[in-house]
């Protein structure tokens, strides 16, 4: 294992699902996180501190004051700085052995495909339908597992698409441009811990994929109601007319 401090991960190593071999596997793994907001900051922090050896973090935005309540890697002194630079510094401080690649840009086209193809798992922490569609297509094309999250008001959801499997649904089977609404945090609001809940769940599912552990969320959407304190899981049927799935098949 590349980590010279096994005590750091002693609690992981004690788990029969991980052990020394699994922790070494995490150290060799590469996760791509697209979006460093309310979802991406807790997800990246837990992946980095859990011993995932290589993170590529992507965001084209800068820190502003409205981010500070829920985007836990940033503080008042970071306002105006690029999110990638601030996040990379904080993640390295938490785990000096972490390899971080910063992408301060909006990914699309071949650049997106290449970044996705270089990773072992992708976490879609973006906040708009157009980006989610492009990321989903790139992951399906490169057979890269995808963990997708979203949150609004006091609700959140998470879905897993293991594109290493030869068959299965994708994000476009769940949502299409016709039924995707235009709600966002700025207009509708968001309870800060809700995005943290979803971000942590995304990190958990990403680690399971990296370790080859089974998940019951593959091809399903997990929906969290923060007001009721309840959740439910719904299977995503594969659409016969899904253009992404038709390309895979």
Name its key features:
249 residues; alpha/beta; Rossmann fold; eight-stranded mixed beta sheet; 10 helices; 8 strands; 18% strand; globular
Residues in helices, as a percent range: 25-40%
How many domains is the backbone divided into? 1
CATH architecture assignment name: 3-Layer(aba) Sandwich
Instruction: Please provide the ordered H/E string of secondary-structure elements.
Output: HHEHEHEHEHEEHHHEEH
Biggest β-sheet, characterized? 8 strands, mixed
The CATH first-level class comes to Alpha Beta
Shape: globular
| Rounded Rg | 17 Å
Average of per-residue pLDDT values = 91
In the predicted model, the low-confidence regions spanning at least 5 consecutive residues are none
**Percentage beta strand:** 15-25%
Structural class: alpha/beta
SS elements, strand count: 8
Strand order of the largest sheet: 3-2-1-4-5-6-7-8
CATH superfamily: NAD(P)-binding Rossmann-like Domain
> Helix count, per DSSP?
10
Question: What is the CATH topology assignment?
Answer: Rossmann fold
First-residue to last-residue Cα separation = 38 Å
Describe this structure in words.
The protein is of the alpha/beta class and 249 residues long. The protein has a single domain, classed as NAD(P)-binding Rossmann-like Domain (Rossmann fold). 37% of the residues lie in helices and 18% in strands. It has 10 helices and 8 strands. It has an 8-stranded mixed beta sheet with strand order 3-2-1-4-5-6-7-8, sandwiched between helices. Strand 7 and strand 8 form a beta hairpin. Helix 3 runs parallel beside helix 4 and helix 5 packs across helix 6. The longest helix has 20 residues. It is globular.
């Amino acid at each position: 294992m590349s980590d010279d401090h096994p005590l750091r991960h002693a609690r992981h190593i004690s788990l029969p699902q991980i052990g020394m071999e699994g922790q070494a596997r995490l150290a060799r793994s590469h996760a791509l996180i697209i979006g460093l907001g309310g979802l991406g900051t807790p997800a990246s922090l837990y992946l980095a501190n859990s011993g995932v050896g290589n993170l590529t973090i992507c965001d084209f935005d800068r820190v502003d004051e409205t981010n500070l309540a829920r985007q836990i890697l940033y503080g008042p002194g970071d306002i105006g700085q690029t999110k990638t630079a601030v996040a990379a510094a904080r993640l390295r401080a938490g785990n000096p052995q972490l390899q971080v690649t910063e992408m301060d840009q909006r990914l699309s086209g071949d650049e997106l495909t290449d970044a996705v193809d270089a990773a072992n798992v992708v976490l879609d922490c973006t906040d708009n339908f157009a980006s989610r569609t492009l990321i989903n297509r790139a992951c399906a094309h490169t057979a890269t597992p995808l963990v997708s999250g979203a949150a609004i008001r006091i609700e959140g959801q998470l879905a897993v698409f293991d594109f290493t499997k030869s068959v299965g649904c994708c994000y476009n089977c769940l949502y299409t441009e016709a039924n995707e609404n235009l709600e966002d945090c700025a207009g509708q609001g968001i309870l800060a811990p809700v995005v943290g809940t979803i971000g942590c769940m995304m990190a958990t599912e990403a680690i399971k994929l990296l370790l080859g552990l089974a998940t019951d969320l593959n091809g399903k959407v997990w929906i969290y109601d923060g007001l009721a304190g309840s959740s439910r899981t719904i299977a995503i049927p594969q659409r016969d007319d899904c253009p992404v799935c038709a390309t895979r098949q």
